[in-house]
Amino acid sequence: MPIDFNSYRHLSRKAAAVLAKFGSARVRFIGERGQFSTRNMPDGWSLSPNPSTGGLLYVVERHFYREVEKVYPIERLADLKAVLAQQYAGEHCAHLISEATDHQRLVVTFVYQKSLQAQLPRICLLLPESLVIAAAYAAKHNKAVINSEEGTWFLYVRGSKFSSQTASPLCPDLDRFAMIHGVPESIPQELVSQTGKIPLLIEGLTKIPAETYLNFLTVQARSTVPLPWKLIGSVIFSLLLVYFSTVTLYLQFVQKNAEQRLENVSKETTLLLKTQREQEQLVTKLNAVQRELRQQKMSTRAWSIVFYLIENEVKISSLLWAEGQLTVQGATPDAINLLQKIAEQPYVGQARFSESTRRERGLDNFSMAIVFADEAKNAE
Question: Residues with Cβ < 8 Å from 197, sequence gap 6 or more?
Fold first, then answer.
């Protein structure tokens, strides 16, 4: 059962306040007029110009990338990744890959304009604007017209799935967009202005799952600006700590509330059938919370591996988190030694090479699959 975040909007507001206090200096928004950072003013959120390249998390305006949805009849993740790498060779892009259904997977690909690379540091998180706003609307089922200085674009959100498109001669208004994407006429409609978009972006950043951020980690081959590695690690760790703390508090609250309600329901003996139905619903909700807690634990361990690789000067070329497994592709002087060290970590259940290593220019090019201890135990 999905968790209803609408009942706990005060937690989202707290998360946004923490983001403003600790992370706003490292969060940037890229638009037609350059980079901007957030400021929490007494009358609401605002953007101020910030041309420096010191950010760690960048949100890209919708007109700076193409959004492509496609269903691939491929169930195995490694095969699908190989097809995507060949199809988008030479492109600067990121992929959201859904779970396999009927031996096929839905892939949403974001293809960024290559001019963005000059505005980014060597390592950063690069998120498309449509993904962030869709996360803010995740609990709704609606369509929206979003206006900005760069132009107008349209968004359709249906739970965890979404579609967006910029205004063009082929899609000049929301009615044409709804017809193209099969949006029912009864779906509520919202009009978002340039100023109204800012709080939606802030809210969306607090609702995106931590494991989703891994899919948008961008590592450029070269950078003209040297990065302070210790500062990068400390800031990312602080942001993740705030995120996990907020989610953990919320989940503990829901779990305690569910347990209390389950205990009260068990005392009702006069309405046996009604009590049985409520107990089943509460047990299902409690199991969902416990699964979410385990997923948060796995996400923390995945980031620990990423920090370990960065500290050991491993050149990371690709990261993918899917189905409880972290797949890392990169280069290091001694891949076997690196595999042994990762396998010795107490929270790692299994570490193996998913592909053959290649020696090139004094480095081992490797692809490593890592399963954490809890996931490996469940698989057995």
Answer: 133, 146, 148
Which residues, in sequence order, are CB contacts of 103 under 8 Å at separation 6+? 73, 75
- DSSP three-state, residue 346: coil
CB under 8 Å to 219, separation ≥6 — which residues? 122, 123, 316, 317
Strand partners, 325: 322, 371
CA 370 to chain centre: 19
pLDDT of residue 210: 78
- The whole-angstrom separation of Cα 163 and Cα 182 is 11
Interval 25-73: pLDDT, tens: 578 888 877 777 766 655 555 666 766 666 788 899 999 999 999 999 9
Give the pLDDT band of residue 3 (cuts 50, 70, 90). very low
State how beta strands 217-219 and 189-192 pair.
Answer: unpaired
Strands (E), 98-160: 105-112, 123-128, 141-148, 151-158
Q: The domain 312-380 is classified under which CATH number: 3.30.1360, 2.40.10, 1.10.860, 1.25.40? A: 3.30.1360
pLDDT, position 107: 93
Enter the pTM of the model.
0.55
Query: Residue 377 pLDDT > 80, yes or no?
Result: no
CA distance 299 to 30: 27
Task: Write the CB contacts of 116 (distance below 8 Å, at least 6 apart in sequence).
Answer: 30, 60, 64, 92, 126
**Between 322 and 297, the higher pLDDT residue:** 322
- What residue type is assigned to position 183 of the chain? V
Do the Cβ atoms of 108 and 67 come closer than 8 Å? yes
Tell the burial category of 335 from Cβ atoms under 10 Å away from its Cβ (0-12, 13-18, 19+): buried
Q: Which residues pair with 372 in a beta bridge?
A: 348
